[in-house]
Amino acid sequence: MNVDKIGRVGGFGYETKKTQAPTKSETTGPVDTISISDAAKKIASEAKLQSEVKQIAKQIVAMPPEEDRSEKIKAVKERLKNGEYDNLSSEMLDKISDQIASTFLGQQ
Question: What is the DSSP letter of 56?
């Protein structure tokens, strides 16, 4: 039995397609540039600091209270219930805000 090749299917004249690798073309067109203003840099820096402060605050809140401070905390809670902190002077408010700031910034 003899089988002849028919057409171009895998036989005579069959060639695979050869594709060329894409070439990089060098362009000399305009180049995009950006510049960030000092105000934007300052805002970004402040936002980063603010997020760090929030993270530190979360860590402080998550920490269990120390045993020797638990009595102080109870006393302060009682004073809050009694209204002793309702009308504070501006000097006292300044001291409290300084203490809070130094606690959050780790300058204790």
Answer: H
pLDDT at residue 13 greater than cutoff 60: no
Segment 33-63, tens digit of pLDDT: 899 999 999 999 888 888 888 888 788 777 7
Burial 54-84 (b: 16+ CB within 10 A, else e): eeeeeeeeeeeeeeeeeeeeeeeeeeeeeee
> What's the token pair of residue 44?
């970004």
Q: Measured between alpha carbons, how far is 39 from 35 in angstroms, rounded to an integer? A: 12
Look at residue 88 and tell me whether its pLDDT is greater than 80: no
User: Is residue 72 a contact partner of residue 21, using CB atoms and an 8 Å limit?
Assistant: no
Per-domain boundaries in the chain: 38-105
pLDDT over 70, % of the chain: 71
